Amino acid sequence: MILYCIITSLVNALTSLILCVAVLVKKARDPKHLPFVWFALAVAVWSAFYFYWQFATSGEEALLAVRLLSASAIFIAITYFHFIVRLAERNCRREVQVGYLLAYLLAVLSATPYVVVDVRPIMMFPYWPKPGIPYLFYLGVFFYYTVRSWGVLFTALRRSELRGRNQLKFVLVGTAIGFVGGSTNFLLWYDIPVVPFGNGLVSVYVVAVGYAIVRFRLLEIDYLIVKLISYSLAVIPLAIIFPLGVWVGFRFALTESQQLLVLVLVSIVVTTGLFWATPLIKRRIDRFLESTLLRGKFVGSRRLQSFASEISTIRDEESIFNKIIEVVSAAMDVQKAAVYIRGDLDAKCALKIQKGWPDPSPLALELAEDNWLVRLGNQHRGAVVIDEQERAYSEEEWKEIVSFKKGLNLDVLVPIYAENLFYGVMVLGPRRNHRLFSDLDLSLLGTICLQLGLNIRVRQMERRANQTEKLISLGTLAAGLAHELRNPLVSIQTFSALLDENAGDVEFQKEFSKVMLRDVNRIAGIVENVSSFATKDDVDFGPVQIDEVIRGALEIVQADIHEAGVQLKYIQHKIPTINANYNQLLQVFINLMQNAVHAMEGIPDSKLIIEPIFRSKDVINASVEVRVSDNGPGIDKEVLSKVFEPFATTKDTGDRSRKGGLGLGLAIVKQIIDCHDGAIQVDSEIGKGTTFIVSLPCNLTT
Q1: Are 331 and 303 in contact (CB under 8 A)?
Q2: What is the DSSP letter of 55?
Q3: I need a surface site. Which of 114, 205, 332, 672 has the fewest CB within 10 A?
Q4: Do residues 118 and 420 touch, judged by C-beta distance below 8 A?
Q5: How many CA atoms lie within 13 A of 89 on its CB side?
């Protein structure tokens, strides 16, 4: 039995100390957990003195150990009561204060012969304590606060729901087991022949309370315990360095002054070495743990960290929602996830995507402004565990929330914000195997939804900018159309007025038919080009070889090149694949090539040079650059600054038989390049020619 007491007291001390340090390191500032630190420390100190007591070799030594363990044991009940009061959110301030006052008085009294009179042999124990009369008051205080803790727990248990209720159950069961086990130590004090067989259950008492904290996300003690043990194992060999150095130095030191010098020198060397080595050792240990014992805790976190930077590169909103649900579900190991988003002018949040619920889904298609999910999202800027928000609602509201939450099986809510604007929420179900959402997980989820909010904000601003651009374009188109349509309409009007007077004139009829056909075609061309410019339909993007686009454009423009007598030079380079739309880029290069050919009509020794280049050095982002050059007459400076605006053209207004002469071709080219997140610029010099440079981002590589 003595060996059993030695082992169990050591286990109790180590278990309590580890939990105490873990809570102190992680959540010491939380008012709910600080009393648990003192409680675990009291159990650890009591167990340590209990352990020391079993090794006592004299009555005096045993008596000292018993008085010390009695002084520390009285704090177990009051610190535990303090912890339960905080956990149950009860206001028992006066009772707690009285309890601490009594504990201090009894701790002082325990050092006197009144609480523990002496030690004596009983059964197999050579030094068992003999209580004094005040020890009855000691036991009364101890058991009063123990029973009082159970009363607070029972009351809180009736009022709590879901996770809070389960947490309190663990604390209550652990308390019952621990106190029943620990109370077996008191029986022999009054000569009741029952050995302290339940001493080993004290650790269950502390662990059950600690598990209640861990199991319900108040702490990540499993993570901390692994680190604490690893750091402790690293400290042990480091701790040997100093005494070893001193021992070696003393072997060669002959006088006390030499020994003092050795002590100082060894202290300086060891302290300096540890100062530089400790951070390195800690980093190595952390990396080792992250790749081995704690690997499972970091795989999902790393995936979320890398994905946070990927969100801004996804073009389509629907693709963003699909990717977020896919990545978050896999990284957090959750089966249920959904995203609600509020539109630009919408008051309600619409369900954009869901995963894990049966069909038809119990999720609402829209969340009104007064919905509790929206209200909860508006109250926070980061991810929250829903069960921990009970205090933010009235009892009736919380009952309604609990009922709703039970049906949907939700665990975490993450608000989606950008620039203090609320855009919606992401909700997640529980993780597999009852794993917890750690603080790091919640922080990363908040970062993901912040990036999503910023992305939505950018898309909204782009849409508004496009609306403004459309209005500006509408004004430009209106002015350009009035100018462009005036000439053909005047011709048609004039000939129509003269038609009655020249009804029998055959030549007039032929001329009238020719003008009508020309001007109607002209009007049709204007309408077609305006439609092409004004239409901004979404197109599909995919892998495109720029060489195939250029060759396709050359096949179409080849007849014009041959007819104009232009020499073609196509300089080929190895170009990686880009992410683009083939047909739109084909339209771009057809337009640029036709413009160059038309500009060089009638010019001797005219040349069209096309050269694609891959740029990856000395640039922030790799890109494909295509140069379309001619040696034509060049573009006037006044026109050059407006060359990409609608209806800007270098061709004579009266000679626009081609559709390309409307001044909309380059405006359409610019629009297509912008949609590809690219850029286009023009260099031109009068009498020497013009070069158009198209730059496209190289998102895909072969």
Answers
A1: yes
A2: T
A3: 114
A4: no
A5: 10
Beta bridge pairs of residue 428: 337, 412
Phi then psi for 187, rounded to 5 degrees?
-65, -45
Q: How confident is the model at residue 654 (pLDDT cuts 50, 70, 90)?
A: very low
Percent of the chain with pLDDT over 70: 77
The CATH-assigned architecture of domain 2-219 is: Up-down Bundle (1.20)
Assigned fold of 302-462 = Beta-Lactamase (3.30.450)
Amino acid identity for residue 296 in this structure: G
Write down the pTM of the prediction: 0.47
Q: Mapping DSSP to helix (H, G, I), strand (E, B) and coil, where does residue 420 land?
A: coil
**Average pLDDT over the chain, rounded to whole?**
78
**In a 3-state reduction of DSSP, which class is residue 27?**
helix
Query: What is the bridge-based pairing of β-strands 607-615 and 567-570?
Result: parallel
Q: How far apart, in whole angstroms, are the C-alpha atoms of residue 197 and residue 426?
A: 52
How far is residue 593's CA from residue 668's CA, in Å, rounded to a whole number? 14
Question: Given a cut of 90, is residue 98 above it in pLDDT?
Answer: yes
The answer to whether 417 and 281 are in contact (CB under 8 A) is: no
Question: Is there a contact between 82 and 146 (Cβ–Cβ < 8 Å)?
Answer: no
Whole-number Å distance between alpha carbons of 47 and 73: 9
What are the structure tokens assigned to 196, written together? 């302290």
Pair type for strands 116-122 and 125-131: antiparallel
| Residue whose C-alpha is closest to residue 266's, from 237, 242, 235, 250 | 242
Tokens coding 557: 């423009």
Q: 218 with 166: CB under 8 angstroms?
A: no
How many Å apart are CA 77 and CA 652, to the nearest integer? 99
Closest CA to 367 of 387, 352, 382, 351: 351
Helix axes 2-27, 221-252, angle to 10 degrees: 110
Q: What are the start and end residues of each CATH 3.30.450.40 domain in the chain?
A: 302-462
Percent of the chain with pLDDT over 90: 10
pLDDT band at residue 162 using 50, 70 and 90 as cut-offs: very low
CB distance 546 to 696 below 8 Å: yes
Residues of the chain with CATH 3.30.565.10: 537-702
Measure the CA–CA gap between 679 and 429, rounded to whole angstroms: 44
Which residues, at least 6 apart from 296, have a Cβ–Cβ distance to it below 8 Å? none
537-702 maps to which CATH number?
3.30.565.10
Task: Report which secondary-structure segment, H or E, holds 414.
Answer: strand 412-418
Calculate mean pLDDT across residues 318-339.
Answer: 88
CA 492: distance to chain centroid?
Answer: 66
Q: Angle at which helices 221-252 and 201-215 pack, to 10 degrees?
A: 120
**Sign of the Cα pseudo-torsion (288, 290, 293, 295, in order):** negative
Helix/strand/coil (H/E/C) assignment for every residue in 103-129: HHHHHHHHCCCCCEEEEEEECCEEEEE
The pLDDT of residue 630 is above 90: yes
> What is the separation of C-alpha 547 from the centre of its chain, rounded to a whole number of angstroms?
40
**Tens digits of residue pLDDT in 109-118:** 988 888 888 8
Min mean pLDDT across 83-97, 156-170, 373-387 is at: 156-170
